[in-house]
Each structure stands twice: as C-alpha cells, then as structure tokens.
Amino acid sequence: MDDGGVRGAIATGLIWLPQRVIGFFPELAQTQGVQTIVTVQLIGLGVGFVGSGIFLLRKQLAIALVLLWFGFGTTWATVIQGFKTVQDFRSSKTLILKAKAQLKADALWIFEGSRELGAAGAMSFYLGPKGIQIPRLSPQPKQELEQDKAHSIRPEIAKSTKTLIEITYLFGDWVWGAPGTAYQTVFVLSDGGSNRLPPGFPGPKPKMLIDKTQMQKDWNGDRPVVFVTDFLRIPKDPNDPPNLNLPKDAGKPLLEIGPRKLYGNAIARKLWLK
Q1: How far apart are CA 114 and CA 117, in angstroms?
Q2: Can you tell me the distance from the alpha carbon of 248 to that of 216, in angstroms, rounded to the nearest whole number?
C-alpha cells in the first residue's frame, strides 16, 4: 500500500471509529460535542501509544516517554471535558438547582424511575447535601416520626411548632440523619413500567417508593409537587411513550434539560410563574 493508501485508511479510521464507538451509546449520540471529544481522545491515544512504541524500538526512551504522556494527557483533558459536555444528560444537577430557585422548600419531588437505580439518590443530594438544621424538633437517634399514608405530620407535632418552616420539613419525604438535621428525599414510582422496575431489597418495602394512585392524590393536593421523567427512556419505543406515567393535568413541562423533563402540579406552576 502506498503512502496515499495509508493516509486514506487513517482518515477513514478517524471518521469511522469515533462513530462506531458512539454507536454503543445511542442516548449520547445526539449530544453536541461528543463525537469531537471521542475523536480527539482516540487520536491522542493513538499518537501516544504508536509513537511511544516506535521510539522505544529505537531505544530513544525520553521521546517515547514524552509521547506516552502526551497520550495520557490528551485522554485526561478530553475525559474532563466529556464530563462537562454530558453533564446535563448523565446528571440532574442543573435541573435540580434551577428548579429549586423557582419552588418552595416544601415541594414534593417524584421521579419516574430509571434503569439507573442511583438517580433518585443523586437528586436528593442536589436538593440539599447539608440538610436542614431543626434541633428543637429532632427525635432521639434511631427513632422515626410516625407519618400517615398522605405524607403528613402528626397533629401533636404540628401543634407544638411555631412556624410554618418547622412544619414543612417534617413531611414524609424528609428523613432524619444526624441529630437535629433533616434531609429531603425523592420519591420513585413503584409502577412505572418494565423499563424502570424499582429496586428490590430484603425486608420491608422502601419508603421512597410511591405508586401512581398516591402520586395523583398528592398531585391534586394543596402542596407543590413536581415530577421528573426518566432520562434513560428509549426514544420512539411504542411501549414506553413519554406520557406513560405523567399525572393527570400534567400540562407542559416547566423545565426541560437534556433528556429530563420536569412537570409541576397547579400549585407548583403558580410558584414557577411568580
């Protein structure tokens, strides 16, 4: 093969290989900038490894090490940029932070569920990693508040509080962590479909699970409720349409970032428009 053939083969590989790699992750294929990142990363690794090997054979160790570190450095830089590029696809951080600025702290968060079981935990983290300090109302360690099925607080506790903010943080979607510190959790649909089966653990049913019936009751209530869709939904799947698990009267999304859509009930929509 002459030099022209070699250059043609390399050019073809640079075009074909990144597309082939991205093809294994169809949900990322539409993310702007991903192909460029993959291409640069593959070129960097290729130049680093091949060049390093050639100079090692020539016993030019210093140049070989420089080329090897060039490949590693290129990979490191593109990986960092890659995390930034796909952040809004893989992470709910941007959506949560923007929505928190529009909603009150007592908003009830419900997640449609996903094949990625840790997604709801990450959402809870972004809602408030440091929790809320409520020393006067915290129970004894390992003791839980008694809540009814509507996620409300005990009347005797409500009567003992002086401010609305103290009552707010004792709904059933808040849990106690360190003494005097409450953290908000995100509920996950337990009947969201075969593509997002809820986690199953030995012992009692996890408290963070909620079914569509209870979700609709909360949606029709007097508390702001938001619903976040599954970011790993397979596009154009006839058995899993985008509106499969939406509450009645969901309306249009209040916020759409990447593959995630956030819907709000009537109370949440009023807060959003203020």
Answers
A1: 6
A2: 7
